[in-house]
Amino acid sequence: MDVRTCLIVDDSRIIRKVARRIVEGLGFEVDEAADGAEALSFCAAASPDVILLDWNMPVMDGLTFVRRLRDLPGPMPKVLFCTIETDPSRIAEALEAGADDYVMKPFDGEILQSKLAEIGAVAMA
């Protein structure tokens, strides 16, 4: 069976750690990036299957990252925004930019797994 990869992009080390524990439990190999610029460099070298993406980060925010990601050649990873944004127009903007879905922070394993299943990244438990 193929190994699935997930890139967690968040400027919070704690959020990355929590998300890592969850997605590793779902069978993913995990890499981390602290901002959108770091994540874009990573994706240019090796495209992950799934990206968990924070919205508000220094250097390059999530929205800018996802727009630039869509310009890279190769297969498109599934992108799940993990955000505290609740404004429907902001969420619509993220989806228009190329995100597959979003999950509100704080999230737990059950919520994350169901969102990943919705976008076809994992099988439903």
Automatic annotation (TrEMBL):
Listed Gene3D superfamilies: 3.40.50.2300
Origin: domain of life: Bacteria
Chain positions found as 4-aspartylphosphate: 54
Key words, A-Z: Phosphoprotein
Domain Response regulatory: 5-120
Statement: the UniProt record of this protein carries the keyword Phosphoprotein: yes
Protein's UniProt name: Response regulator
A matching Pfam family: Response_reg
Annotated source species: Brevundimonas balnearis
